[in-house]
Request: fold
Amino acid sequence: MSLNYDFIIVGAGSAGCVLANRLSANPKHKVAVVEAGNKDTYPWIHVPVGYFKTMGNPRTDWCYAIEADEGLNGRVIPWPRGKVLGGSSSINGLLYVRGQPLDYDYWRQLGNTGWGWDDVLPLFKRAESWEGGGDQFRGGEGPLTVSNTRVTRPIVDAWIEAAEAAGYRRSEDYNGPDQEGVGYFQMTMRAGRRCSAAVAFLYPAAKRPNLHVITRAHVQSLHIEKGRAAGVIIREGERTSTLKANQEIVLSAGAIGSAQILMLSGIGPPEHLREHGIAVIQTARGVGQNLQDHLQARPVYKTSASTINVEINSLLKQAVIGARYVFTRKGPMTMAASLGFGFLKTRPELATPDIQFHIQPFSAEKIAEGPHKFSAFTASVLQLRPESCGEIRLKSSDPMAAPAIHANYLATKNDRDTLVEGIRIARRICTFEPVKSLVTEEYAPGIAIDHDDYDGLLAWARQTATTIYHPTGTCKMGSDEMAVVDNRLRVRGIEGLRVADCSIMPRIVSGNTNAPAIMIGEKASDLVLADAR
Reply:
């Protein structure tokens, strides 16, 4: 194995796969991608509904868990993150959501020149191949296939129609100029199979002789020489080696991994590093700070309509569904994690939606445990722009030890108020036809909690809400004292080192984070190539 490269990318997740493709397109650049996980040979990765089998599975998931969280009544909840080629794009729910133009314009207003909506829209377009074809908002020729859902369900149709009856409008394309409305999600699927970042970007480039993909290699730390990132120390089994970077290293290990690697390398809050016996190379107080995530409350309604809960409640039914998928690539096995969406406002005076619904024609206490025995649907709701911020901290200087994740959910009154109002809107929509006649019982929160009982609804959310898997912000971009990278994604104070993943977000985007992660990979590739020798 060669030990010398022009560019080393740490992490073959959504952004890392994009970088691998774009940086290796020029044959003069020798590129290495280092991934701690394995190849994506596990069959369930490529089946859209396979997230039931990949989340919580140590074969494909880091299986992180947060520290006991006061905002969740002291509960500890799982935080799945992909540990495989493609990263979380190989285990996620396939939902393709860019966010709102306002999100990126706000980044620009914070001083991050080049990151406004007009700047990033061409990058979103370059990355995608939208089945509707390219236009002023959508890309038609990119590597990432984005399609409308192939699965519909009467209960989801009924919820969307009820939302319209409640006064909300139907959205033709929430990834266009206006996110607001209700409808069916778009998904990263190609011919009935998951179109992960590995499938879309990494594999088309994998045969290039100048691209070297290294799997099952755990990064121990960066090798810093005289203020420059000169290499990456990796561990493969019991063997440790150093890969040298002639030009740049790009951390794309995610909001958890990138912050952890920086701290293990001596780049971070000095007092915290010294606690763990790590020599301080560069003071960077923002490393691990500014952690943001979307917290979902999950109202569940029993229904007389058919849902996935009862459609798979026998081995025979499962066999029929499986056979249909094998022979046609159609049916329930092509279903994303959610079918229906709603981007809505809790108050009419808001400029843009502040809550998001994920409408799922199934229900479960925990995804890994499988669905309830009764027919039901879930009207999951989250706050799009939470104010609460947590942090990533080291538990030890051992690179193999998971860091401490302090999510700090529901720490502000606005976050609590918005989530409670989201639950109330979920309830209100279910009082409109045609979904009203299909609901037989509100299973959760349950009618024992009155609609106007703020404390009761908040207590239910604290006891049952969970992540929807969007950690961001721990290596934020900016120019203030807590910024870790500048607007060109360069780590402040260290030459030859950038971060390119969702950790660079100064504020979380209004929606799911896979599409923005891919856009960040596209942007980073342009920045790296502009400075390349």
